[in-house]
């Protein structure tokens, strides 16, 4: 069933999320601090048994120089520079096994699939630790470090993601001017953060993006992971205002206002996990050229392989 | 939690499934009848946008000449003859989109991913109709045509599968002596049927196979799709004996007794969908050389990508 | 809880379902084709052990002459012509056992309880096959043959139902001018189709009718069987428009526009299976004299025996 | 799935329920006390609109003279004396509407369908109050008055049931020597109690009987209504021994030991509500001639209409 | 997720509950009748092993003189007169064990925790019987005696509660002018009834109160215990109007109109058990000075210990 | 329903958990390292408004000197030395609010309720951070740092607990020779660890203890939190052996072997969270004097207030 506003109202909906005055300063300082560490990119070939795709185990220095793992996949023996897809994962997942996710490299692109620190134990195993501790937090990652914007978990994740772009750009096989970022759910939310923090991207593909419009998303659904925040605040009843003050620095709505790259969003009208109004909350603020695909009968799976095929066509046009 | 017998008892367990006296005659006649129709293999290239893998939309004549669809994927510009993987799908799924499932072709094999007639509307869309009607049946495919062995749905599916091997063998790109069959869940059940009905296979990979040990599987779990049979018999209380009489002709236990190709099974101790005793029911009867991987902490997802990686290593050895 | 619009809005609600230009031609041709087959009515007495009611196992030629089963029940030794109730069953059920559903015959009426082809394996066993195959379909009957209006499952079901009236009218015990049609849920939807396709009915009793207002019913509830369509379209994402184009030929809203017999609807405000707005979607279009009973605290069970008692009173008046 | 012991063990299983030394004295005194009140049978014809069955609203004096309601149904204008079925209802239900349950009268029998005091608000509305209060009790009827055998709810219910037989025997239309008692679930449990307390019954039909083998039934299932007792004891932790001491006076196992009439039990191997071992707990103690039908694929619905048809055949033989 | 109207609409919402003309007469007569019985207060010390709090097992004559149990807790060796908290329990619970709920006495108050008759078998065991029987009722207490306002269960409960205040006032340790009533959920509903029926209270603390705004609460949620009424009316379809006629005499909305004591309500925006609109339905009618705390991220647990701490502060001010 | 072995088998059951050769060395080194940091006990009075109990906000140096929070509660103005209860919390909870849990201080004991680091966001809010990061982990705390025994979360928690005893012993109000440890579920597991690591305890009260018998507890239940480990291993399929190697250092079974203080266990036969065999797995190894209370009809709530009352009686005897 449709879980949210009618589509006509979705297209008019405006998020109530505030835009913190020092949002840009916070992120500028955050990134500057991490950039003091060398990128430290290491790329090791993996013996996968594949013949048409080469896979590399890549490590780079993310937040405050902490190592982040990714798979780099390219067409066999490709030298580049190639148009490149940097992909971020959905909540709970990691970069998974080296032999998975062969689509983008098979289509002739360089493909960097980046771990989300600490995650990757629910599906698609991850290999990247999150070396930072936390105040009291609920199960999951949504409230890790939520006591301050400095300690909040996604400060590290988004910094890792920005550094992932910079690491990609450092590779010979990558054409720095032809990088797009892509991801579904949490990966879509990270893509929006990257779109708001990194210049010169060729495109952004936030699919059924998560991490958007917290004032609404924390109150409109009982699905995890947004509900993790609600459960935390149900226990820590005195922290609601402070928590939302922190979340404003990590909301896709605010990153969307600062983005300039061309974007292709998707959303699904039966998605209780990332309800469409929260996606439109970011989409309607998105400052760059944009399109959105609305899947009427889908839930959080969104367009699935149909989205992949559409992206292949868009990329072919984009890089023609 | 472990859903079935302890592993030590699993390894001793013997299914009570009967071996119908005319089992072989039934299948010989069934296949002979369908073989009167020309194979009618058609292979059309698909414009996927992929560069390292070529995908073909393949049609061949299955049961009684009825058309069955499959994707044929090969490394770009491969001419063969290649070692080949013929794969069957899990319950409810179809061959899905042309751009999915690139692993086997990327590893240098020809890969034929065959539709299951009528299915492919629950996940991984299918494109093959099932032109046969049915007596009263429950939702799903488990009781379609269950009134007789002649009309039972899986008679058509297994015939399609045998014909898929024959269609593969008709292709220049395929090395007829180096074909393995592989599938998970229903695809594992179909693989067992093929192993029992087709000679000269190089290997069989039934993963968490379904369609095994019906006397036990219809009474030991409340999970679909086995439960479809139970619900049908809860309504049609007078048909239980007859239905089991039909099912004996389609039970992986009976196909296993007739198989000779080397086999690598997998099963999972927390799998309520295809409980491990029903897998061992087939495995313990399997007449060819065999191994089984037991995943202790997994459910019906079994080994997932870990199974794929193991299969890649086995195939590399097998075809070295 | 109330699952839909407030009652005042329900009474104003108008469905958005389109009225296909060739709707009447489609059904005229469909029925004409099937009418080329003889009705072939066979009526066999059943040895039930009952003393006050005689039960007959009736067969007649439905869609394209295919045999359809029904129970004919009459007061013991009745010769007629009797006022007659033709009843259709809810989703998943069949005509059930000969000794069930004695109410209407005990009240002095002829009662024809018609199987729904292929169904009757979930409850109330059925005995009528559906000899037609289907393209890829989801579990259940809602998407069987949905690829075209010609192959859609309910084309056959509704034709069977029209032929059931004609078969009833061919019986001596039936008074052709005093036939009412009745059914709950799917039986209500079939009753509406009959009301739109057959002249001269004395009354129509669509109770909590299903198969109404597909544009809304496929998006307003997650309950089966409407949800079967949603799941199909979630997989076959490119077929939504075509499927709705087909469904328009089978929507109770469109049959209601063409009905003329007096009708007594029922609906329930807590019914998530056939939400009341979808019932009002048909009711508000119904072209004949009409009443509707609204049960505030009931779900899909609607009025149950209270509806039966009301119908007994209405029939007594109608046929006084 | 099978929810209990294998059938071979079921047939050997013996309940651990104790047989209180003063069980017979308790029930003799209980019945004697209520028999001091006149039976006070009142039988009022109901205007149902039915033509083949006459329905009467019957009231009689149950426990301590408190009025109990029942429907008496007979073939139209029958004068008797007729073989008679006295039926008790499942948990939560009442005698329902006058126009329901026409089977037995349509088969030529007198049919007395007795309310269960206080019940009939969950399904099949009831009309009989339970004028007695209770100590603290959980939702439902299982722990009402459980503080002593004198105040326990089923003391009143079973006394009502015994008085129902006596009331039936007082009617001209009833043949006192040809009375059978029948009921499903709670109705089966009441039937067993009647079988243990009343002489001269022609037959007993406990279908999937409830109220049996409390030491096992309160610990082997999480389904209501047995679980009502478990929840009560989870709160009133100090009352477990006392409660079981009370329940021993109301256990079908103990009534079965005292029964002499011929009995036809049914049970279902997938019934989590009245698990088959608890039914066999009573069946294996049953002192009269006995048979049991085991439905392998059914849950608590048991044999449904199949059981009815079997009962019709048994009754025809019995009263031939 | 938010389960009800936005907070701005909640503050404007007005219940549609009717105000029966003889509401005051009904309650005046009800209380007068019970007051003909002596209060019969008995207070027995309990040997708890506690050193800082003395606990007494108190009994008093409630409705029509029937005994009601409560715990009286005071600071060790307190002689009073003390400011006093009379507390009523949530649905299903009783006064629990003597050693629980030490907060209020530890804060220096007399604390009377009153059983709810018949309840206390779901959690927090109770010791008070409900000696009155009932017509047919559903599981639970919501429909016990609902056939008339005279027999309705809460007539007895609210009378018990009024008598509890009178019993408290009869104690030397209690300061009759400094009594507040407090309770969560059902305890909040009882508190509102007391506020409408008793003069001279120092304060009222209805937390997430139940038993409010029946026209809305019985139709806006599927959660028990409100749903108990809906299920009853789903079976007894003809009793809806009568039942609501009875409920109007027991609705917190109507008691709120008659209250004068200062009140501190709480409600939670994610509470499906006592949805916030039904709380505001009472709050917005409340005739005395009032405040309400709205917990945005909580369900039926409301403010929990945060509410306790706020109450401690309010009481300290109130009795400073 | 009973969820595990019959009680007679429980009493014979022996866990298969291994006893690592360097278990004692590991813990000796662990504790020695943390003891290099000063205990740093700080005790601040809290203004709670309570009159009979004084509450102090206590901080002490736990694992590697990291600060841990606790509530210290004593009878008002108590000077000691008092017999003392050190309590640890169940999974997900923290020390909660200062005004909660007044029982033990009201009974005349000093009561130290210790936070579990990082927890306290699911219920009973906590105030203690866990400053250590982790490799990839699943939601919750069970797999935090599970990659090695050095980094495993419970190494820090158990060290905090040992230091809590030492901190308690440093207080004047505490009688160092009369300390008991108590806790339910996780708190019971921590109590067992303390019993194995600390000498001179007067008693141990592990109620329905968690963290026991990992080889069995990770495979016998699907309930969290044990299932957290299963889900982790379902993803990280290659880490099962290593993870169990780590867990052996934290298993209550192994601590039980090393304990000497008198112990009172409780367990519940219907507890799916900490199934009774896993409790008996520790109990049957417990090396000190021991008793166990078995609650037959309870789940994970165990004895609740009944356990508290029993403990009060035991403590009164113990410290008489």
UniProtKB/TrEMBL annotation, chains A, B, C, D, E, F:
Domain of life: Bacteria
Region (Disordered): 120-145
Entries under Gene3D superfamilies matching the protein: alpha/beta hydrolase (3.40.50.1820)
Span of domain Acetyl xylan esterase: 2-315
Protein name (Swiss-Prot/TrEMBL): Acetylxylan esterase
Species for this entry: Frondihabitans peucedani
